[in-house]
Amino acid sequence: MLLAIAIMALGAVVLGAALGFASIKFKVEGDPLVEKIEAILPQTQCGQCGFPGCKPYAEAIAKGDVDINLCPPGGMEGVAKLADLLGREVKPLDAEEKPKQIAIIDENTCIGCTLCIQACPVDAIVGAAKQMHTIITPLCTGCELCLPPCPVECIRMEAITENIDNWKWKYPVVEIKAAPLQKAA
C-alpha cells in the first residue's frame, strides 16, 4: 500500500515536470519587431505620443498605423534610430524636444493628497495620505504626468545636467570585444 502511494506520487511529479516542460517548450514570444521598436523608445510611459505607454506606441508603429516622430522624450535621436530600423524617412519631431528631466516635490508645500502617486506610471513617488511625498529620482522618467493632478502645484520639473551617472541615457552602451591573443611562435 505504501509502495503504491510512493509510485503514484513519483508519477505525479514526473507528469508535472513533463507538463511544465511542455508549457515552456511551446511558449509564444512577442513580435520581434515590436520588441526592437520598444527598445529604442525611452520607456517614460508618458503618453505624449497619444498612446498609454511605449509598448502600445511600438505596436502601432510596427503595424504602420502611426508616424515614428511622435515621441518628445525620445527626441530626434529616437526618430533617427526608428527610421534606420524600419527603413523609413526621418521626419522632424512632431513636438518640442525636451531635455531629460525629473520631478521635484516641494515637501514643505505638499499636502499629501496622493493624486501624484496615482498619476505616476512608474511608481517613482512615495508617500502616504496626509503626509508629504517625495520622488525616487532614479525611477522618475520625467513624464510630467504628476503635474496636472497636484492641487497645490508643489511639483516642478528640473532638467538633469549630464554627468558620469546619467550619460548613458543619451548615448547607447557599446560592448567592445577584444580579439583573442595569438601565441608567439
Automatic annotation (TrEMBL):
<feature type="binding site">
    <location>
        <position position="71"/>
    </location>
    <ligand>
        <name>[4Fe-4S] cluster 1</name>
    </ligand>
</feature>
<dbReference type="InterPro" id="IPR050294">
    <property type="entry name" value="RnfB_subfamily"/>
</dbReference>
<dbReference type="GO" id="GO:0005886">
    <property type="term" value="C:plasma membrane"/>
</dbReference>
<feature type="binding site">
    <location>
        <position position="49"/>
    </location>
    <ligand>
        <name>[4Fe-4S] cluster 1</name>
    </ligand>
</feature>
<keyword id="KW-0004">4Fe-4S</keyword>
<feature type="binding site">
    <location>
        <position position="116"/>
    </location>
    <ligand>
        <name>[4Fe-4S] cluster 2</name>
    </ligand>
</feature>
<keyword id="KW-0677">Repeat</keyword>
<feature type="binding site">
    <location>
        <position position="150"/>
    </location>
    <ligand>
        <name>[4Fe-4S] cluster 2</name>
    </ligand>
</feature>
<dbReference type="Pfam" id="PF04060">
    <property type="entry name" value="FeS"/>
</dbReference>
<feature type="binding site">
    <location>
        <position position="46"/>
    </location>
    <ligand>
        <name>[4Fe-4S] cluster 1</name>
    </ligand>
</feature>
<dbReference type="GO" id="GO:0009055">
    <property type="term" value="F:electron transfer activity"/>
</dbReference>
<dbReference type="InterPro" id="IPR017896">
    <property type="entry name" value="4Fe4S_Fe-S-bd"/>
</dbReference>
<feature type="binding site">
    <location>
        <position position="113"/>
    </location>
    <ligand>
        <name>[4Fe-4S] cluster 2</name>
    </ligand>
</feature>
<protein>
    <recommendedName>
        <fullName>Ion-translocating oxidoreductase complex subunit B</fullName>
        <ecNumber>7.-.-.-</ecNumber>
    </recommendedName>
</protein>
<feature type="binding site">
    <location>
        <position position="120"/>
    </location>
    <ligand>
        <name>[4Fe-4S] cluster 3</name>
    </ligand>
</feature>
<feature type="domain" description="4Fe-4S ferredoxin-type">
    <location>
        <begin position="132"/>
        <end position="160"/>
    </location>
</feature>
<feature type="binding site">
    <location>
        <position position="54"/>
    </location>
    <ligand>
        <name>[4Fe-4S] cluster 1</name>
    </ligand>
</feature>
<keyword id="KW-0479">Metal-binding</keyword>
<dbReference type="GO" id="GO:0022900">
    <property type="term" value="P:electron transport chain"/>
</dbReference>
<feature type="binding site">
    <location>
        <position position="110"/>
    </location>
    <ligand>
        <name>[4Fe-4S] cluster 2</name>
    </ligand>
</feature>
<dbReference type="InterPro" id="IPR011005">
    <property type="entry name" value="Dihydropteroate_synth-like_sf"/>
</dbReference>
<dbReference type="InterPro" id="IPR017900">
    <property type="entry name" value="4Fe4S_Fe_S_CS"/>
</dbReference>
<dbReference type="Pfam" id="PF14697">
    <property type="entry name" value="Fer4_21"/>
</dbReference>
<feature type="binding site">
    <location>
        <position position="140"/>
    </location>
    <ligand>
        <name>[4Fe-4S] cluster 3</name>
    </ligand>
</feature>
<feature type="domain" description="4Fe-4S">
    <location>
        <begin position="29"/>
        <end position="88"/>
    </location>
</feature>
<dbReference type="GO" id="GO:0046872">
    <property type="term" value="F:metal ion binding"/>
</dbReference>
<keyword id="KW-0813">Transport</keyword>
<feature type="binding site">
    <location>
        <position position="143"/>
    </location>
    <ligand>
        <name>[4Fe-4S] cluster 3</name>
    </ligand>
</feature>
<feature type="domain" description="4Fe-4S ferredoxin-type">
    <location>
        <begin position="101"/>
        <end position="130"/>
    </location>
</feature>
<feature type="binding site">
    <location>
        <position position="146"/>
    </location>
    <ligand>
        <name>[4Fe-4S] cluster 3</name>
    </ligand>
</feature>
<feature type="region of interest" description="Hydrophobic">
    <location>
        <begin position="1"/>
        <end position="23"/>
    </location>
</feature>
<dbReference type="GO" id="GO:0051539">
    <property type="term" value="F:4 iron, 4 sulfur cluster binding"/>
</dbReference>
<dbReference type="InterPro" id="IPR007202">
    <property type="entry name" value="4Fe-4S_dom"/>
</dbReference>
<dbReference type="InterPro" id="IPR016463">
    <property type="entry name" value="RnfB/RsxB_Proteobac"/>
</dbReference>
<keyword id="KW-1003">Cell membrane</keyword>
<keyword id="KW-0997">Cell inner membrane</keyword>
<keyword id="KW-0411">Iron-sulfur</keyword>
<keyword id="KW-0249">Electron transport</keyword>
<keyword id="KW-1278">Translocase</keyword>
<comment type="subunit">
    <text>The complex is composed of six subunits: RnfA, RnfB, RnfC, RnfD, RnfE and RnfG.</text>
</comment>
<keyword id="KW-0472">Membrane</keyword>
<comment type="function">
    <text>Part of a membrane-bound complex that couples electron transfer with translocation of ions across the membrane.</text>
</comment>
